Amino acid sequence: MKAPENCPNCGADVPRNARACPECGADEETGWSDEAHASGLDLPDENFNYDEYVKREFGPKKHLPHGLHWLWWVVGLLLLAALISLWFLR
Question: Helix (H, G, I), strand (E, B), or coil: what is residue 33?
């Protein structure tokens, strides 16, 4: 692999045909290749189970109530009726 113009590890200028970065010593094995660049990121592998991860991190799903309670609908309709009647009475 050809040396990059700038070191992806430290950002220093890398001379053409250099085998390692003159500043930090990164080379194809430690920082220039895609495998070396991503090896320290602790990325999930192909056996990663997203559903199991979510369950472990956030616990079991909690069921949220569906819609509003009927009492709130009644209160909302009464308030709407009161506002309409006040508008017509003014």
Answer: coil
